[in-house]
Amino acid sequence: MNSPIRVMRDPLIVDGEKDMSTMDSISDSMVTDVLTVAPDMSVGDVIAFIEGKNIRAVPVVDENRKMLGVFSTSVLIKRLLPVSATIEDGLQRLSFAVGAKDTIIKHLEEIKRHPVRDFMDSGVFVVSPETHTWEGLRLLTKHGSPIPVVDEKTGKLIGIISDQSALKTLQSFRSTEV
Questions:
Q1: What are the pLDDT digits (tens) for 58-112?
Q2: Cα separation of 2 and 149, whole Å?
Q3: The predicted structure's pLDDT at residue 175
Q4: Residue 72: which residues within 8 A CB-CB, separation 6 or more?
Q5: Domain that holds residue 30
Q6: Strands 6-7 and 125-126
Q7: Which helix (H) or strand (E) element contains residue 161?
Q8: From CA 117, how far away is CA 71, in angstroms rounded?
Q9: Domains contained in the chain, number
């Protein structure tokens, strides 16, 4: 079972003080026009939605935009494969799956009828808008893209940081120093 959403605290605070020479916050890097889906949408509809938008993952939010989790193609694929193929040091070859193709396709068709809440990752790492840019970049490299930006008090999704938005921010650092 997935663990609850975890808000990462900013480790750049030392003795209650933030290093003022590096005050860039992740809010400068986040995308605020975020596509989302509702938890009761079918997995099939969400697959069609993300394919139509050419994205790999989408936040799942309730009617108040409270962050519930993220649905991604990688999580779906992991759910389709045998557990032994998805664990570290698990199966090294999936040649047996060729014979299981019809079973896997049937399983996918069954999954498509379920609500996305059953197949989202609710254990995603999220950051607050005050999180330092460099901490956001570290989390992207450790946990992958995208990372939701959530208001700590309300739990509402306010944006995401992605590999693309982070790269854009890094390029802006260069242009301001040249």
A1: 999 999 999 999 999 988 988 887 665 555 665 566 665 566 778 888 989 999 9
A2: 19
A3: 54
A4: 56, 57, 58, 121
A5: 6-177
A6: parallel
A7: strand 157-161
A8: 8
A9: 1
E strand or H helix at 57, and its extent? strand 57-61
**Distance of alpha carbon 32 from alpha carbon 66, whole angstroms:** 15
Domain presence at residue 22: yes
Question: Quick one: pLDDT band at residue 126, thresholds 50, 70, 90?
Answer: very high
Paired strand residues for 57: 72
Complete DSSP assignment for 83-124: HHHHSTT--S--GGGGGGHHHHHHHHHHHHTSBGGGTSBS--
Question: Is residue 1 assigned to a domain?
Answer: no
- Residues 133-167: pLDDT tens digits? 888 888 888 988 899 999 999 999 999 998 888 78
28-52 tens-digit pLDDT:
788 999 999 999 999 999 999 999 9
Tokens of 105: 């396709």
Cα distance between residue 23 and residue 131, in whole Å: 9
C-beta of residue 5 within 8 angstroms of C-beta of residue 122: yes
